[in-house]
Fold:
Amino acid sequence: MTGDAREGSSASGLAERFCAWLAEVRGLSENTVRSYRADLRSYLRWAERVDVDPLAPSHRELRGYLGELARARYSTKTINRRLSALRGFFKWLVREGVCSEEDVSALASPKVLRTLPKVMTDEEVRTLLDGCVASDPVGLRDRAFLELLYATGARISEVSALSVDDVDLAQGQVRLFGKGSKERVVPVYRAALEWVSRYLGEGRAALLNGKASRALFISTRGNRMSADALRIRFERLVVLAGLDPSLTPHAMRHTFATELLDGGADLRSVQELLGHESLSTTQIYTHLSVERLKDVASQAHPRS
Structure:
């Protein structure tokens, strides 16, 4: 057996092959694949440390791994994510004929306390949007970015991946590519379209400074802005606007969904617009909408 073959059949080599499969066959994003890789490497380090065969762990040994994570005070969400990565890995191993069975599927996931996502008030959104001084290319970009984020409920990774060709100003819509490269088309309100149009006409070329790129949002160095760069910029704009520093781009997504449901949109439509694979993921926003109604009632009712 060659060195490459031995490496490919080792636990670490198989983990890398699985991650490559996630990217090439499943079409998962670079960030998602990176998370899988990190979680699997953590598991492999544990298996080596406690002398467990990483490709044939018993149910009891796997419980020991989860127990160690819990004792190390990892959050329930993190433990569930690592368990999910292991489930996916071992299902792939069985499918590839490396393992004949896998005990990991029998492990129950730790229960996560369901918390309502953080949303922004109308006043906070207006403050954030109006805080962008659109007097130069960077200001125009920032305003177009925020408007598009709020108008579409897009994930920050989806906004980063946008090209100029994905924005249809004439039809008033944007084409987004979500998890697994699934495509969806989301309508955009007029004000957002106007800001994007201004940015394209007055700001983008100046930021490119002669470089050739079809990316929509451009950095001051003339490159596509990554998801991390856009997230950092969002957080900076939040601080400049004097808002709660804990607000994230995902709060805009939560706000988008809640506003739609408050406005009478049906759950299936919101699911499609958000790009959720499961309706159960979208249903959290119905609870959020009810909580907002309770707040309004408690403030407005004379006997509250």
Residues 1-8 have pLDDT under 50 and may be disordered.
